[in-house]
Amino acid sequence: MIVTAKLRLMKTMCFASAFRSFRFPLLRELGMGNFQSPTLLFTCSFHSSSRATSAHTHKDASLISKFNSASFRDVDDALASFNHIILMHPLPSIVEFGRFLSALVRMKQYQTVICLSRTIESLGISHNVYSLAILINCFCRLHLVDFGFSIFGKILKFGLEPDIVTFNTLINGLCLEGKINRAVDFVNDMVAGGYQPNVCTYTVIVSGLCKFGKTNVAIWLLKEMIERGCEPNAVTYTAIIDALCKDKLVAEAVSLFSQMRDKRISPNVITYTCLIHGLCNLGKWSQARALLKEMVGHNISPNIFTFNILIDSLCKEGLVSNAQSIIKIMIQSGVEPNAVSYNSLMDGYCLRSQLDEAIQIFDLMVHNGIVDAFSYSILINGYCKSKRIDEAMQLFGEMPQKGFLPDTITYTTLIQGLWNAGKARTAHVLFNNMCSHGHQPDIIIFSTLLEGLCKQGDLDEALTLFKAMEKSQLKPNHVSYTILIDGVCKAGKLHDAKEFFSRLFEKGLQPNVYTYSIIIKGLCKKGLLDEAYKVFRGMEDSGCLPDGCCYNVIIQGFLRHADVPKASKLIEEMVGKGFSADATTTKLVLCLSRNGHPILRKLRNQSKGFKGVNVK
DNA sequence: ATAGGGTTAG
Questions:
Q1: Among A50, A127, A131, which Cα is nearest to A83's?
Q2: Among A52-61, A147-156, A244-253, A464-473, which stretch is predicted with the lowest mean pLDDT?
Q3: Distances in Å between the alpha carbon of A601 and those of A561, A565, A589, A607, A613?
Q4: pLDDT surpassing 50 at residue A611
Q5: Burial of residue A446, with CB atoms counted within 10 A of its CB: 0-12 exposed, 13-18 middle, 19 or more buried
Q6: Is the CB of A215 under 7 A from strand B?
Q7: DSSP-derived 3-state class of residue A562
Q8: How far apart are CA A69 and CA A601, in angstroms?
Q9: Taking phi first (over 0 means left), then psi (-120 to 50 degrees means alpha), and beta for anything else, what does residue A363 get?
Q10: Closest nucleotide to A133, Cα to C1'
């Protein structure tokens, strides 16, 4: 039966690697030479020269017990332990090595696992289905799912029996690369081979769908799995609850949360944390606090993730001192703040231009050895926003010697800072520098360049870049269009602006409130009030509700062109929606009323309590 | 000993 299943698998799945010869060890054949770390070379050379053959000493015994328990302080500790153990005799079995590799996976040392798998094999230890699943998982995490499939092919060829975990690992690998269709096909192959999908199989697909914005399909699959007799668990529900929260559909998330509790599936700390995050993101603080309480009451303690989410949300609201209180509370409850906690705090201070406080945290992190690449980008951003570009450059320059290589985000931050500081040339040099270091420019850095060129008034160069983007793989998105429309509007070229605005729709892109505000502002400036009003009214039809800024823009247009009736009508409408007049609108209204126009009194009567126009 | 859900920067 098993043999038949295997044969069917071999027939249904066409993996070229499954039909190669196997004279060489598994990983060498895969050409894994580039995964060799210095550690690996070190262990190999030592291994051949001197291996202890005498009976184990006490020291050996403690080394062995440490290795076998697989509880290591950090990566270096784990590698040191490995280097010791492979000099001993007899060597640990694949079971112990498997536990060791699994510990490395928990530390996200995927590349190291791949290297060491080869070392283990070269020591004469044969892999089994467990260790190979670990290896496949590591390839998948590095987005090398096809290498994972090569291992799978060898499992079959070597006569090992893949289990459901092997399949689920590969299915997850496909999902991580967004290849959901291939993942579903593979599930079908698996079923054809006689394996039944379990709750993990479904959950992997559910979370894959969620990650790629197909929450509705994920919800459908949730129902489907129940119908097929596979009960979802807390992990399945949590994946969907999190996706709903990220789509800002917190009410739906809460309803799914109740649904799982009705089914007696207990939410865990991750479920609560996702919901709290969703509520915080929408500024629903009291509900978040209540849930944190509906959580502790169920004997579920907040963990580092929960605390970090609270810290970050408070910082983003500008409430850094409240975030500091959370730090105290977490320490009191035995949860040590980590790099993420401090990075959020730093960013909070940068947001409030309290650079000294941010620098203090950065230095503290350096002192405690927990500073990371995020910390650098955050502080560089802080310096840029506070117009301290030289210090930003200096910090950027220090990164490599401290063991952190700048990534695309670090470059983008600094390039934007340089443009704003008027240092276009340096920005350009830095961009080339980034490309020569092998960082693929993404849509955001192109938008940054586009914005820099427009701000500098170099519209021709901006247009050239935009055209280049259109021809490339990296097509302009709604943000790129918005930046360009802003640029041409400010240059007074309304004809071009209108053209780009309609081209945006033609490309199937969706303008947002910023895009609308910009084009409306441009039209108003040129005195094309009717057209501006038409665009403004067209917003809702295309599913984009005007915000306070949008109202202010169109109102200012009418006020500047002395169309007071239209302006006051729109102010009334704006106030009714809970938005208020900004400083410019207020000034224009006051100006008109000082000139004897009764608009101010009219507005005072219309907007009860004078909410609409804030006059001190 | 192997699989699935949550946090920070442009």
A1: A50
A2: A52-61
A3: 20, 13, 10, 10, 11
A4: no
A5: buried
A6: no
A7: coil
A8: 79
A9: alpha
A10: B2
Q: What is the pTM of this model?
A: 0.85
- A433, pLDDT greater than 70: yes
A564 CA to B10 C1' distance (Å): 42
Whether the predicted pLDDT of A303 surpasses 90: yes
Query: By C-alpha distance, which of A548, A544, A534, A535 is closest to A509?
Result: A544
CB of A561 within 8 A of CB of A529?
Answer: yes
Closest alpha carbon to A291 in A253, A263, A326, A343 = A253
CA–C1' span, A306 to B5, in Å? 14
Query: Does position A218 have pLDDT exceeding 70, yes or no?
Result: yes
Cα A474 to Cα A312, A446, A465, A488, A504: the distances in Å are: 31, 9, 11, 22, 15
**Encoded tokens for A487:** 């640029």
What's the pLDDT score for residue A73? 87
Cβ of A238 < 7 Å from strand B? Answer: yes
**pLDDT > 60? residue A572:** yes
Shortest-distance nucleotide from A234 CA to C1': B5
Residue for token digits 């280097």?
Answer: A83
The answer to whether the C-beta of A324 is closer than 7 A to strand B is no
pLDDT at position A40: 35
In this complex, the nucleotide whose C1' atom is nearest to the CA atom of residue A134 is B2
Q: What letters, b where the CB count within 10 A reaches 16 and e where it falls short, cover A556-592? A: bbbbeeeebebbbebbeebbeeebbbbeebbebbeeb
Strand B: which residues 492-551 of A lie within 7 A (CB)? none
Distance separating alpha carbons of residues A577 and A361, to the nearest angstrom: 41
Instruction: Give the model's confidence band at A62: pLDDT under 50 very low, under 70 low, under 90 confident, else very high.
Output: confident
Q: What are phi and psi of A476, to 5 degrees?
A: -60, 140
In this predicted structure, what is the pLDDT of residue A11? 33
Residue A327 CB in 7 A reach of strand B: no
Cα separation, A486 vs A525, in Å, equals: 12
Instruction: Report if CB A199 to strand B is under 7 Å.
Output: yes
Q: Is the CB of A207 under 7 A from strand B?
A: yes
Question: What is the pLDDT, as a whole number, of residue A599?
Answer: 64
Dihedral (CA of A264, A268, A272, A274) sign: negative
Cβ-contact A3, A193 below 8 angstroms? no
Considering all nucleic acid strands, name the nucleotide whose C1' atom is nearest to the C-alpha of residue A302: B6
Q: What is the mean pLDDT of residues A568-573?
A: 91
Residue A16 gets which letter from DSSP? G
* Separation between Cα atoms, residue A297 and residue A210, nearest integer Å: 30
State both tokens at A326.
């959370």
Strand B nucleotides, any atom under 7 Å from protein beta carbons: they are: 1-10
Q: DSSP labels for A335-373?
A: ----HHHHHHHHHHHHHTT-HHHHHHHHHHHHHTT---H
Burial of A229 (0-12, 13-18, 19+ CB in 10 A): exposed
Does the pLDDT at position A616 exceed 60? no
Q: Are A224 and A236 in contact (CB under 8 A)?
A: no
Q: Tell me the C-alpha to C-alpha distance, in Å, between residue A102 and each of A118, A133, A164, A199, A542.
A: 15, 10, 18, 22, 51
Averaged pLDDT score across all residues of chain A = 88
CA atom of A255 to C1′ atom of B1, Å: 38
Q: Is the CB of A128 under 7 A from strand B?
A: yes
